[in-house]
Structure formats: structure tokens, C-alpha cells
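Colleagues,

For the teaching module next term, I've prepared a clean inverse folding example: a structure given as C-alpha cells, and then the sequence designed for it. I'd like students to try predicting residues themselves before seeing the answer, so please don't circulate the second half yet.
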């Protein structure tokens, strides 16, 4: 058995922390893989908020949900930037979200010029941390092989390095001997306050 891919590892980390009935967020819906995964984790009593700025992404997500989880009513699709995550979720969700997932870069199979950018990603991640409950997790899949990808990854690292270790535990998971800018994962767990 080999090592888990970065997305499988992100899913494993989330499965260990999220329970049925939780509220979770897919901050970059893309083609819907993570949205469906999160919907399975929280079940019909939970809520998934999926964000994307591209209508094509939300249509693909909706199609995947219909195919893999017919009748699923726990997912709310938002055609808006992940930077509006905190504004979109009600104050009732503040400090109660179990997991937030980010896949940075571009929508596979779509325009590669439409990419996530630090100016919206960093505020979105900060909002996500504010929404997380104690023990909740934020996962960030970083893709650096496209134009702007490396700069966004650097901005994410700079932001991550400022997080106080008493409040957050941060993990990086990557394959070191792969070529062509392999993606990697950063996970942030919200710790109990001391």
C-alpha cells in the first residue's frame, strides 16, 4: 500500500474530526469532489456550504451531487468568492464549523487564467479559521505549477507562519521527490485555548 494522495490525506484528516450534523465548507467547489465528500461526512442533518466564482464549477458540482447523492438537500451552493465565506454564513455558525477545504489554483478543464489569488484567498482562510470550532480543521491543497501558483503559495506560507502555535497546529504533507511542481497539502487544526 502506497502513501495517500494529498486529497485522500485531506479527506482522512477531515473524517477523523467531522461528525454527522456538522456544518462544513468547500471554499473552492471546483468539480464537486470535495463537496460530495463533505456531504457524505455530515449526512442529511448537516450542512455543506460550497463556494465558487464560476457558474460552470457549481453546475459540475450540482451534477456530481445528483449522480452520487441523489436527493441530497444538505448542500448550499454559493456563486461568490470564498472571501465572502464569513459574511455568507450566519453568525450562528461562528465558531461552530467542523471543516473548511480549499483547493487553490484553477478549475480543471476550464480557463487556466481564472485562478485563486492571495488577495481573496488569505481573507477567506482567516474567515475560515474564525468560523472553525475547537478541534475543527482547515485544509489547503496548493498547486504551484501554473502562473501565479507559486506566488499564492508563498502568501499562504507567510500567513500560516504568523498563526500562534497556542491556538493552531499546522501540518504540511508533500511528496519531495516528484517533478513538475507536485501539489501539496497544509492542514490547520484549531486547538483548545490554554
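(Answer key — instructors only)
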Amino acid at each position: 500500500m502506497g502513501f495517500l494522495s494529498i486529497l485522500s490525506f485531506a479527506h482522512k484528516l477531515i473524517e477523523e474530526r467531522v461528525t454527522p450534523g456538522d456544518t462544513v465548507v468547500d471554499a473552492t467547489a471546483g468539480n464537486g469532489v470535495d463537496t460530495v465528500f463533505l456531504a457524505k461526512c455530515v449526512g442529511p442533518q448537516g450542512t455543506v456550504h460550497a463556494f465558487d466564482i464560476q457558474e460552470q464549477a457549481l453546475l459540475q458540482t450540482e451534477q456530481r451531487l445528483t449522480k452520487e447523492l441523489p436527493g441530497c438537500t444538505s448542500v448550499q451552493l454559493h456563486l461568490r468568492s470564498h472571501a465572502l465565506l464569513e459574511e455568507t454564513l450566519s453568525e450562528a455558525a461562528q465558531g461552530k464549523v467542523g471543516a473548511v477545504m480549499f483547493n487553490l489554483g484553477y478549475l480543471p478543464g476550464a480557463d487556466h487564467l481564472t485562478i485563486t489569488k492571495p488577495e481573496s484567498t488569505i481573507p477567506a482562510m482567516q474567515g475560515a479559521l474564525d468560523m472553525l470550532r475547537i478541534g475543527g480543521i482547515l485544509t489547503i491543497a496548493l498547486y504551484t505549477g501554473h502562473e501565479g501558483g507559486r506566488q499564492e503559495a508563498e502568501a499562504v506560507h507567510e500567513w500560516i507562519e504568523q498563526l500562534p502555535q497556542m491556538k493552531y497546529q499546522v501540518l504540511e504533507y508533500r511528496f519531495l521527490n516528484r517533478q513538475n511542481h507536485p501539489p501539496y497539502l497544509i492542514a490547520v487544526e484549531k486547538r483548545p485555548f490554554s
